Amino acid sequence: MATINSPGIGSGLDVNNIVEQLLSAEASAPKNRLDRQEARLQVELSGYGAMRGSLSSLQSALTALNKPSTFQGRSISSSDDDVLTVTSNGKTSRASYDIDVSRLAKSHTLSTDPGLAAAQFSDVNDVLGTGSLTFKFGSNDYDPDTDSYSGFTQNPDRASETIEITDGSLIGIRDAINQADIGATASLVFDGEFYRLAITSDDTGEQNAMQISVDDGDAVDDDASGLSLLAFNESATHLAQTGVATDAAFTVNGINITSASNTVSDAIESATINLKSVGNASVSVSLDKGKVSAAVSKFVENYNGFIDIMNQLTAYNPESNEAGALNGDALTRGITSSLRRLISDPVGEMGDTLSILSEVGVTTDSKTGRLQLNSETLNQQLDDNFERFAGLFSAHGEPSDAGISFLRASDDTAIGDYSVNITTAASRGSLSGSALANLEIVEGSNDRLDLSVNGVSASIVLTAGSYSASQLAAELQAQINNSTALKNAGASVLVSESGGVLSIQSQRYGSASAVEITGGNGSTDLFGNDPVSTEGNDVAGTIGGIAATGNGQILSGTGDAKGLTLHVSGVAGDRGTVNFNRGYADRMDTYLQSLLGNDGLLESKTEALQSRIESVNDDRAALQRRLETIETRLRAQFGALDGLIASLQSTGDYLTQQLQSLPTIGSNNK
To answer: What CATH number does domain 107-243 carry, 1.10.10, 3.30.360, 1.10.8, 3.30.70?
Structure first.
């Protein structure tokens, strides 16, 4: 029997169409079910995406209200910006200040003196001489009228610097000074007749005047020739003083104040004054209420945006029988209820502080759940109780002792009042000499000191010369603090003297604070044979009656106070209490983080929905595989049927032919 290659050829049946209709009937119900299931899951996933977006916006709106700095802002202004400008860089007290500027701070300026024949330069390439220049910065006692230089006191914060001069021309000396970057700038000025080398201290103020000593290549350091023309010290004053180093002088509300700089940061609490000219100006400081008001408005706006989204996602229209994407969803109802409860629960005891949002003009509409802001009430509270807003919104600690500052808290810090008792006040490491210091420093003999400050090693070289005890202390402090190793480590010291005995104190607090002499040819001459080194102490004590952890002046709580971090200055003893509370922004942010974090509820819910959508796709793939099996079986069955029918047709055709060939009964056969 011939093979049938196309279904239906043998039987005449439309097998392809029959199989397709059977498969369509088989797939219709499960396919529709899977399509409806995926569509429902996609709508739910989209709904959670919209909710997540609105919650993220709400969390962002809480950021400003969750920062204590938002409530420390001050608005500060000057009545005359030509006299002075002023900026606030912290919690400036509300006040008005009358400021009268009588003198600006100026830099010390020296120049070559054409009154000396050897200093009459007609060309910038004219040569003075070679050798070295040693610069010291401090306050000098110089009278230009009598050309008398009677004293110099070194600035303890600036080390002396020596510059080698190999190109002795005016240009060469200028470039050598500028390239050395020592805090002085050189320039060449033509006065209409002669070129003059001018040298200016980079910093203003009386303590930043320059003293210049010369080691002249001609072996004479104080004559009026060669490199010695640049001398300005007790031995020789060949440079002309063209600009006197002066401090700024001004009054604040009648109080006399001087400053080495025209930028003054300590005259008004947490404010910086920039003096610009002689004159009078008033400065007014007011609370930066606008910043807080804007933050509260943004919070209300974004909370209402969340409520609107939730109302849309959970809505049901009985007329159209249409429901929102998350209608009836238990998690959605729980989130909305939790946030509504968070903004309605008080954050403190009523009457003691601002404790509920309605006190600052934020109320809830009972019908819609949206917040309403009464700007008049908010502004009135900002006027009357500005200092209480931080506690209403942020995680905030309020110490009763002025010497204790609240720094931060953690999610583990429990709300409450914590007593603070200091058993050991923080201290700084120090070293004191055991003998009078040798005030005569000789190069290569007793000028080097090796020491360690806070565990950082450094070696310094003192400038040779004869000192008073205070001058030597200033030189030593300047050289130590100018050490590259110590500057890179952020270490510095304060050097003092008492009765000719030197002492070094680290500027760092805590057990890591220490000063040690490790060597150097000047160690004994400076500090004697048995200097006494005392290590610093970390602050120690209790917070809430439980031992706390100290690091320098930082004290961190444990137990319920875990994460509560305080800065403690002052003495040991009972230091009052710290009232710690969590405001609305902090509480809501913590809750939102539990929803929006990588391991939060919404992430888990989203992953579950994605997994269910993937499961629907797996079911589709399984359905497709089952349909392919059914199709193979049906085609095999119809193929067999087709072959059987074709065989029967062939047999029928054969029988028909045979019957047609039989003789007809009754006919004549010839």
So the answer is: 3.30.70
